[in-house]
Every structure is written in structure tokens, then in C-alpha cells.
Design brief:
Elements lengths: L1 E6 L6 H11 L2 E7 L11 E4 L4 H14 L4 E4 L5 H11 L6 H8 L1 H10 L7 E5 L4 H7 L4 E5 L9 E3 L2 H18 L7 E6 L4 E10 L2 E10 L12 E4 L5 H18 L4 E10 L2 E8 L19 H9 L13 E7 L5 E7 L1 H5 L4 E6 L6 E2 L10 E7 L2 H13 L2 E5 L9
Parallel strand pairs: 1-2, 1-4, 2-3
Antiparallel strand pairs: 5-8, 6-7, 6-8, 9-10, 9-12, 11-14, 12-13, 14-18, 15-17, 15-19, 16-18
Helix pairs in contact: 1-9, 2-3, 3-4, 4-5, 6-7
Length: 413
């Protein structure tokens, strides 16, 4: 068996996928978004440019010609479209290119969800060259502005009135033009704000059938003005009928987008009207959050994904009985991260399994909405979700995060 993993050099997920592949005896080629001259081909690595499809496809097909592939898997959002394109070219099982594109583009996603009657908010595609005063006067409030293709809540902001909208639009425009410095106008989405509690669903799609692997509660309110996720807890504490409705809504969303194979991650909100789709992605959960999940015989999520992609038997989809959770440690302020103390004391909290500080010391860190990463991750396990949540919060309180002011950033409030 030989699998290609598409990833960025900064991904959190490489180690977990490589460990799972080694456990299964699967050979791996890592296709990293970098100039080919910087890669180490003799070390199971090739360099591909995710933004240059022709070069990337040539490199992937050349690799497959020398070492035939059983599957191509994108480790995160960045390579999902390329994985679909390359799989199609090589005749490998995967979601269609159109489905991968729909899961990456929020406007396309909303359009398809609305077409198929899947509950999702009213929306409007806008551009940074639109007149903010005219646009602000035409909207319904509260509303949410978001980039079409960013992940991790980067650039997502709530506005409750025209003045807040104009300020948020200017801030989002600065971010989008910084990320893409071309003079072209940048599109973005405006949609109605959906009140309610938020959950995340992790699943595997098999010929269009959704098997729910885990449902995560998000106990901290996500009401804005920004939408920084913190705690994920599983199993969900929601009533069984509500969980069944969430799974049905997620399955309908996958079908609307054309997603049929492989991992799926969905974000939903639940209120008196039922579940609403926030987003659907044709990949697994981001960051290091997958470490929260364990299945029968201590199988990881990455192993399940690799087994399915390679056509290996899967008999261990049931999550372990104990509750699990993760806190994505928020970045409290912009600046240079000088130190994080109290880690040992926090790891001594009953139920805490591990704390990983992933941000680099003496490097700039940027909070949402301009930032796209977390300070680190706290992992906990216990008999109940309540116990896990309490452990995560207690551990976080013991951390002291020291951030020094840095040179003023391009972004401002």
C-alpha cells in the first residue's frame, strides 16, 4: 500500500498520519506545499505548489508513475481540491472535483445548500470594492461577514448595525488584501447570524452514507463579535433526538455538496427551529483536536481515514466509552510570545492528559479575527463530559501567558 498525503509545512497533523500509516504498514509520500527544490525526494517527500495546479499535478503524476498510489489524502483544507483533482486524473476513489470545490468555497456551499433545502442562513456574495454605506443599508442585522476560503474562523466577524458592518468590512478588506496582495477586488460572504448552541460533527462518508464518529459540544458561547473556538467535548450532552436531527442535517448537507467518500467535518448550530449548517468540510477535524478521539482497540481517527482510503477493513468505528475533550488555547493579545508558565501544574490537574504549546517563543502571535492559529492545545479525558470540561478550565487557569508588545501590526481594530 502507498498513500500520498498533501500537507503544508506548518500542519499539525503530519505526525499523527505518519504514525497511523506506520502502524498499518502503509508507505507514505508527503507532498508538501513548497518549492520542489527545497523538498527531499529521497526522504519520502516531494514539493508541490498548491497554487499552481499544473505543476502540482505533474509532480504528483510523476511520483505515481514511479510508485503507484492507492490513495491521495489531504491532511487539511489547503490540499483538498488538489487531492480531488489528482485522484480523478489517476482514477483513484475520492470525492469529485466539484464536491471538493463546493466544500472549499463558502458561497458555492451556501448556494447548493439552499438549492436542496438544507437549513442554512440567508446569504449574499459581496466584494471589497462594493460601497460599504450602500451595502450596509441593504442588510438584515445581526449578520456575519466571512472570507470565502479561509478556515478556523479567520476573518469571521459579526455586525449588529450598519456602523459595525462598515467597520468590519474595512477590517476584513485589509485582511483579504494582505493575504492576497493583488489589486483585484476580493469577494466575501455576508449571511444572517444564526443564534443557538454550536456543535461539531466528525464522520466518515462511504458511498454517500454518513457514519457519525463523534459529536462535539462547544460549551463556550460563539456569539461574536469574533468566533474563536475553545473547548470541544464528546460525547455530546444533547438529547438523543437532537443528535439524530444533527446527523440527518449533516448527511443532507454532504449530499447537497456531492461529498460521498472519506472524512467529513461539519459545524452546526441548534435552536428552536432545529439544526442549521454553519459549514461542511471534506476533511477531518483540524489542528490537533483529532487526538481527542479514540476508537476500539485504541485506534486513531487517522488510522480510520487511511483504512477507508486504502480499502482496508474497518471494524472499529465505535468511539471509546470515556469522555474526551480539548481546549484550543486562545491567543489573548497580539505581540511576541515570551513564555508560557504553569504547564507542569496544569498537567497535574486530574483528567488532564497532555498540554502542547504549539506557538513558537519569541515569534509574533496574532489573535482572531486576523490570526489563523492557536497558542496550543490542552487534552483531557474522564468519566463524563462535565468532568472533562472542568479539568480543561482548571488547567487553563493555571497557565500564565506572557506576551510582549511587538512592532505595530498591519491589522488594527
Amino acid at each position: 500500500m502507498h498513500v500520498m498525503l498533501l500537507m503544508t509545512a506548518q500542519t499539525y497533523r503530519a505526525e499523527s498520519f505518519l504514525a497511523a500509516a506506520a502502524r498499518l504498514g502503509i508507505a507514505v509520500t508527503a507532498a508538501i506545499d513548497m518549492p520542489s527544490r527545497l523538498a527531499q525526494p529521497g526522504n519520502g517527500t516531494i514539493g508541490v505548489d498548491f497554487h499552481d495546479p499544473a505543476q502540482a499535478m505533474h509532480a504528483i503524476c510523476a511520483c505515481a508513475e514511479q510508485h503507484p498510489l492507492n490513495a491521495i489524502i489531504s491532511v487539511d483544507d489547503s490540499g483538498s481540491l488538489l487531492a480531488a483533482q489528482a485522484s480523478s486524473a489517476l482514477g483513484l476513489p475520492h470525492n469529485s472535483v466539484a464536491a471538493a470545490e463546493a466544500a472549499r468555497d463558502k458561497y458555492r456551499m451556501r448556494t447548493l445548500l439552499a438549492r436542496d433545502g438544507v437549513p442554512s442562513p440567508p446569504f449574499r456574495r459581496c466584494s471589497t470594492d462594493d460601497d460599504p454605506h450602500t451595502l450596509a443599508a441593504q442588510l438584515t442585522y445581526p449578520c456575519v461577514l466571512k472570507p470565502l476560503r479561509r478556515s478556523g474562523s479567520q476573518g469571521v466577524m459579526r455586525a449588529d448595525d450598519p456602523a459595525q458592518f462598515r467597520a468590519a468590512m474595512a477590517r476584513l478588506a485589509r485582511l483579504l488584501h494582505t493575504l492576497d496582495p493583488t489589486p483585484e477586488p476580493q469577494p466575501f460572504l455576508v449571511e444572517h447570524f444564526i443564534p443557538g448552541v454550536e456543535v461539531a460533527l466528525e464522520g466518515l462518508l462511504d458511498h454517500g452514507w454518513l457514519h457519525v464518529l463523534a459529536l462535539f459540544d462547544k460549551p463556550d458561547p460563539l456569539d461574536g463579535p469574533f468566533f474563536e473556538e475553545t473547548i470541544y467535548l464528546t460525547p455530546s450532552r444533547l438529547p438523543d433526538p437532537v443528535q439524530a436531527a444533527i446527523a440527518d442535517c449533516a448527511a443532507r448537507a454532504a449530499a447537497a455538496l456531492g461529498l460521498r467518500e472519506g472524512p467529513m467535518h461539519a459545524e452546526l448550530r441548534i435552536n428552536a427551529a432545529g439544526p442549521w449548517i454553519v459549514e461542511v468540510a471534506g476533511r477531518s477535524i483540524g489542528g490537533l483536536c483529532a487526538k481527542t478521539l479514540r476508537f476500539s482497540s485504541d485506534v486513531s481517527l487517522e488510522e480510520l481515514i487511511l483504512r477507508q482510503a486504502c480499502g482496508l477493513p474497518i471494524t472499529m468505528r465505535d468511539r471509546e466509552q470515556r469522555a474526551g475533550g480539548v481546549m484550543m488555547i486562545p491567543i489573548p493579545a497580539a505581540g511576541l510570545l515570551k513564555r508560557v508558565t504553569g504547564v507542569a501544574a496544569a498537567e497535574a490537574v486530574p483528567g488532564i492528559e497532555e498540554i502542547q504549546i504549539t506557538a513558537s517563543l519569541n515569534y509574533p502571535i496574532i489573535p482572531l479575527p486576523e490570526g489563523d492559529s492557536y497558542l496550543g492545545f490542552i487534552f483531557a479525558r474522564g468519566e463524563t463530559p462535565d468532568a472533562v470540561e472542568a479539568a480543561l478550565r482548571a488547567a487553563h487557569r493555571l497557565l500564565e501567558i506572557v506576551i510582549a508588545p511587538s512592532i505595530p501590526l498591519v491589522y488594527s481594530g
